[in-house]
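FAQ: What does the model actually see?

It sees only this:
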Amino acid sequence: MVFRVAGIIHLKSAIDIENPDITIAGQSSPGDGICIAHDSININTRNLIIRHLRIRRGKTEGGQGSDNLGGHPEGQIIVDHCSTSWGMDENLSLYRRVVRDPKGGRDRKLPVKNLTVQYCISSEALDAKNHAFGGTWGGEDATFHHNLLACNTGRNPSIGMGGEFDFRNNVIFNWRHRTVDGGDETSMMNIIANYFKAGPATNENMRRVIARIEERRQYSPGRRFEPGNWFPQTEARPGKWYVAGNLLEGQPDISADNWKGMRNSDRGEASPLARVLTPFEAWPVNQQSAREAYDAVLAEAGATLPRRDAVDRRVIDSIRTGNFATATGIVQDPKEVGGYPDYRFRPEEVLVDSDGDGMPDSWEIKHKLNPALGTDGAVDGDQDGYTNVEEFLNGTDPNEFIDYRNLGNNVDSISG
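And it is asked to produce this:
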């Protein structure tokens, strides 16, 4: 999906994405970009990419389930450089898929497969009903890196379902009663090189906490949804946690020994059964130190294209300066922080696309494609796995083969 408009899209009902094989390219908007308002986007499909989109629900009515971005994604999902705020439940929640029973029996809920959330912002979930949460994240082979969770009371994030959970190079700021929490006895969690910075909302007993370990079988595949077996009678066990390289600003002892910042959900001391000393295998990431990640996230996270909006700029500024629009940085209504900004449409930025294939004529001519041939957008001329229209959206050369199996070649060419 390529945009030729800019501004706020006021939803009258939620958007349910049911069809697979879709890319939503918010960076293509001419002007100040796209903002989805007043309802949710639910991902209920596979093979989906969303980039540089803002989703700011903003409605103070609603309750649990009133997320900005959620749903039941099947797998192969990438959410990149998106900004979510002002959700009534959670800002961004992606962790489980629904498997329908072909015979009409009870549906099964299992972890989403192959999920990446990167360089996104989850900020200022609305606290109108004491449910201002950053999100529930998880899945099998799920990776979350270089994201910002700011001014949410809890679930920063909560780890849902079992499987491999890789959480590194994220920034968590100004929580109230929870940082990272969750998991079950099947979870394998890497919590690596993240930056934690308490704020005015942070409870005193939470300033030194990296994560809260849950001991439960609630989410275990094949068990949770058996009738009468939501909470088995056998004793629950914690998942396995690898925790290293995290920095808690103002807490040098926790930064030096991260396990001191781990807590159990029912008692203060973290269970030794939960600790592992080697990281779990995960998708490769160009990892930085926690301090380097802090600088990178503040500079680059969120929908920065076509340009960063006033909401994200204000949130980033509060992290840098400690100045807030509300007393604690927690928000109950968007009006408290100025509401929705104006998003200008800039018609001079609409480039001519004669054949309607999503690639401007000028770009096609530059790269020796045919601006009068509407089918060449789906062609992968250099055989590197990306079609011509994807090369345009990604800012890469459609005539140059790049081996993306080499981690060093995976460079964001458009976002800064």
